[in-house]
Amino acid sequence: MTALLDRLAGRVAVVGSGIAGLVTALSLAPQPVVLLTRAGLGGESSSGWAQGGIAAALAAGDSTDLHLADTLAAGDRLCDEAAARAILSDTASAIDALERFGVRFDRLADGALQFGLEAAHSRHRIIHANGDGTGAAIIRALSTAVRACPSITVLAGIEVRRLLTTEGAISGLICAGPNGTFVLPTTRAVLATGGLGGLYDASTNPAGNFGQGVMLAARAGAELRDMEFVQFHPTALATDRRPLALVSEAVRGEGAILLNERGERFLAGTPGAELAPRDVVARAIGREIARGGKVYLDARQALGARFAERFPLIHQLCAEAGIDPARELIPVRPAAHYHMGGVVTDIAGRSTIEGLWVVGEAACTGLHGANRLASNSLLEGTVMGLRAAQDIAGRPEPAVRTAPDVKSVASPDLRQVRSIASRDLSVVRDRTGLDRAIAGLLPMAASAGPSSDPALVALSIAVFARLRDESRGAHARSDFPETHAKAERRTMTLAAIMDAAHRLNTPMLAQSA
User: Fold this and answer.
1) Rg (CA), the chain
2) DSSP letter at 273?
3) Among positive and negative, which fits the CA dihedral 174, 190, 226, 376?
4) Are 493 and 422 members of one domain?
5) CATH for 93
6) Does residue 278 have an active-site annotation?
7) Which of 85, 188, 225, 278 is catalytic?
8) What does DSSP assign to residue 427?
9) Which of 280, 281, 229, 279 is nearest to 251 (CA)?
10) Comparing C-alpha atoms, which of 169, 139, 178 is closest to residue 49?
11) What is the pTM of this model?
12) What is the extent of the structural domain holding 58?
């Protein structure tokens, strides 16, 4: 292992093997890269589970301006318009890059891309690869390209536990693997670690994804932004399976409707109905369930016997649960799905720490605002992977420092944190629940125990949510149902978050004394 680490020292280190990490590594070729992944390539990756596809305003009658307008509307006035325009303007380049890396998108008989419709999009602009198996098809292609790329060394089964900094700049990664803890010296690291859905019991994300990139960057001193905005997908398949299987928005795009147990189409009077923004649909479903009801997706008339052909993966997931979507109602419920907040980055993926880039869901570029527009995530991961690679390649390689001896860091344990987040940081929040969450999470986050790392991420969500006394996008507060006239973004370091948590927790301590 020592000889391998000596050979890899100083290489660009890419952490994570979802779409953002794989694209970054491939785009840096022929520059030497070490790619570290907790599982195998693409394993435990939300990218690989994506069904909906990639939003791409490439069809006749569509444009970047129209795509931007839809993105800003979904983001509830909290998007960074300049960043959003820059990312969406790179759509054609992103799709070209994916095809160059081996991805094959679904096309019509004449060879033109096939475009689908999803919620809150004003045009048919969602492209797929292998139908509703888009994510898996993309990750397979990119993983194959990575294995064939001689400049990329993959270290699988490795978890990055801490970032090392020297004089405010990245100097190495503390890693844990089958043979124990080791340090990989590097002055250039890219975090592409995905989201934080694993903090919740009901989630469509890999259970181990608790926001590692956010945690790593925050502990190193990076700024975080808009941590309260967690998107809950309205239609996860309501079974005992964990993580929950996703029933893509594209099913509603094909005309499927939502019914409660009384057979009522409860979204009929809502603008957009079943294709309203995700936060609207998730809260409507949540209200039905909260009153003791059940919610179903009805695709019998819209798709019927065509369901298996149009959505083979979802059909298989339903079949595993004993459901025939061609003839039966599909039980659904909201589940944690995507995080709009994260590590502050610029349009090149640079964080506020020298030598640290963050791409994909772990980053907060400003594209998504308060509520991500459907299928913008895979696009962002691709575009920002390309941009980060270009930025890194255009910079001189700094000298690598000698790696220090370090102590091991405890393996994360999510059990206690998950119960708190699921109860108090879910679809609808209030002050009582948020204060309770802060009181429960603060001592864990401040400790050195196994709950510390996931508790830090959940505490960040709770503090940001407690300080936002309004409802906006994916952040809904029952005690503050209105939306402020002025949209404000919030940026904090870990030190500021901990200070705010202590301040907010003081009344709770006084009440319990």
Assistant:
1) 22
2) G
3) negative
4) yes
5) 3.50.50.60
6) yes
7) 278
8) S
9) 281
10) 139
11) 0.93
12) 2-195+340-393
